[in-house]
Specification:
Blueprint lengths: L20 E6 L19 H9 L1 E3 L2 E2 L5 H10 L22 H7 L3 E5 L10 H5 L2 E3 L26 E4 L8 H15 L6 E6 L7 E3 L27 H9 L6 H31 L6 E5 L22 H4 E2 L2 E3 L7 E3 L3 E2 L3 H8 L14 H5 L9 E5 L17 H9 L7 E5 L3 E6 L5 E4 L19 H20 L19 H7 L1
Parallel strand pairs: 1-7, 1-9, 2-12, 3-13, 4-5, 4-7, 6-8
Antiparallel strand pairs: 2-11, 3-10, 9-11, 14-15, 15-16, 16-17
Helix pairs in contact: 5-7
Length: 507
């Protein structure tokens, strides 16, 4: 098994001109299988698809967590969520912790973060890590324009569906972010290389979008979700969510409406991506910019009878990432089948910037596989979620429709217990703290519907051996990647005004 630790000598922090620019485009809660370039025939995503033709898409890229903040922090640090306790929405990156944007700024890049996404950095960290942050274009539409007090008996409302939001494009937070990014690129005069992170909220629920995107997709052509009746041995949180929200009563027509609205939201994001990429071309940046398109995690979208996500949910629809990379020397129109992790973005971007990290991390640069898509990058990938039940007081507290999820976590903390997953090309194994472990044959069951450990095959010695081996690899991974030691040691014996050390030195 490849070492999880970085190796090789450190490179100098070169600030020479001509280094490539870096664009990070990050929709929230975007499933890989809703993009045309990932095989979806009902999708309308021409800009994602064209970017994949110009670059390389990853067929087996995996997020490290199924919830926004922990996943994004893992991307920014190349740490796993458990490495430094970034496993909740409220434990954000501190000023003394590493982050990709700060590394790029220190390496001489002009760093921009358009918009107001606040689920990654603690107070003041955004400002210290960027040269520009915030909005040049202010939203004219806000969340206060939404009715959050819908009919609690309405099935679609309880499934996070708010429907059509008008007949004309609106300047919401995402659109303001895109327009700000475009203006910043058009107005910049620096000869420094630049890096820009563009984090969007869509297609995160509530499921809502304006025309023309709301009406873009035929409801009758929407794919059917994975039914609970098709699955065996899934965790109990699924049943509890279905019961509390009444999702068992959603019809196939209801699911089609939710899915079509979500697809419309994705198409709107695609349009925004296209305008951003056109700006790169118009400003003369296109040939010297690495563009990374990815999400933080996915969305249930009716699969397993659920919508939205869950902190210990580790199904492919939640953690498979729609990673696409294009740029100088990136192979065009290629598909990478080897496993990669989203923590691999940090060392990739730092190698592009001709600099190095100054902290122990577990990422592995993607540049070699971007030049040769047939090499094996990782023989196994890992992700995780959930909490210790003793940490109940640190669990999420939420209102609106999210309150049911919050209530389950606090009332039944065993249903959100820690879980870790390892995926190889053949197998997927999930180790659960409070519930039955899960084993899936990814070749025969890529959607991970049938937990072999809940069938008669669980007693097969070969199956037991596979499960034990994968569990051992998870435990080894946990040991290797926990509790990193800072590279900058503190002075153990600082000089004190009236301290013994000063006295000793004067003798």
């Amino acid at each position: 098994m490849d070492s999880l630790l970085p190796s090789g000598p450190l490179k100098s922090n070169s600030k020479k001109s001509g280094r490539p620019n870096i664009l990070l485009f990050t929709p929230d809660q975007l499933r890989a299988d809703v993009l045309g370039c990932f095989g979806n025939t009902q999708a309308s995503t021409p800009n994602f698809d064209n970017l994949a033709k110009q670059g390389t898409r990853f067929n087996s890229a995996w997020s490290q967590h199924s919830v926004c903040g922990p996943s994004r922090i893992s991307i920014m640090t190349a740490w796993y969520p458990h490495t430094a306790g970034h496993r909740t929405l409220d434990n954000l990156l501190k000023p003394w912790e590493p982050n990709l944007l700060k590394y790029l700024k220190d390496a001489g890049y002009e760093v921009a973060l358009p918009g107001n996404r606040g689920d990654v950095f603690a107070q003041d960290v955004t400002e210290m890590s960027t040269d520009f942050c915030g909005n040049l274009v202010k939203p004219s539409w806000s969340w206060s324009d939404i009715n959050f007090n819908g009919d609690k008996n309405d099935l679609l409302y309880n499934a996070f569906w708010f429907g059509k939001q008008g007949n004309e494009p609106r300047i919401d937070g995402d659109e303001a972010t895109i327009q700000t990014a475009i203006q910043w690129l058009e107005q910049r005069t620096s000869d420094k290389p630049w890096a820009m992170w563009v984090p969007l909220l869509a297609p995160h629920p509530p499921f809502m979008v304006e025309d023309p995107w709301f009406s873009l997709h035929d409801r009758d052509s929407m794919p059917k979700p994975i039914s609970s009746s098709e699955t065996i041995g899934k965790p109990q949180f699924m049943n509890e969510l279905q019961k509390r929200y009444g999702w068992d009563d959603l019809s196939l027509e209801d699911h089609a409406e939710i899915t079509a609205t979500y697809y419309g939201m994705v198409s709107r994001v695609d349009d925004q991506l296209g305008r951003l990429l056109s700006t790169l071309d118009q400003c003369g940046y296109a040939n010297n910019t690495y563009t990374f398109c990815f999400s933080d995690h996915g969305e249930y979208l009716g699969d397993h009878g659920l919508v939205e996500k869950w902190p210990s949910g580790l199904d492919p629809c939640l953690v498979q990432n729609p990673l696409i990379v294009a740029g100088p020397k990136v192979a065009e129109g290629e598909i990478v089948h080897s496993g990669v992790e989203m923590i691999d973005l940090l060392p990739t971007c730092l190698e592009i910037a001709e600099t190095d990290a100054s902290h122990t991390h577990f990422g592995k640069s993607l540049l070699p596989i971007l030049n040769d898509c047939n090499i094996e990058h990782r023989d196994a990938v890992f992700c995780e979620g959930g909490f210790n039940w003793e940490d109940n007081h640190l669990f999420e507290v939420a209102g609106w429709i999210y309150k049911h999820k919050s209530e389950i976590q606090h009332e039944m903390p065993n249903l959100v217990g820690k879980a870790q997953c390892i995926r190889t090309q053949k197998w997927s194994f999930i180790r659960r703290q409070n519930e039955q472990n899960e084993l899936y044959d990814r070749k025969k069951d890529p959607q991970e519907k049938i937990n072999i450990l809940a069938t008669s095959r669980k007693n097969d010695p070969d199956i037991q051996a596979v499960a034990q081996d994968l569990q051992n690899r998870i435990l080894e991974w946990l040991v290797q990647t926990s509790d990193v030691i800072p590279w900058q040691p503190d002075n153990r014996f600082p000089s004190l005004v009236h301290g013994w050390r000063e006295k000793q030195e004067n003798e």
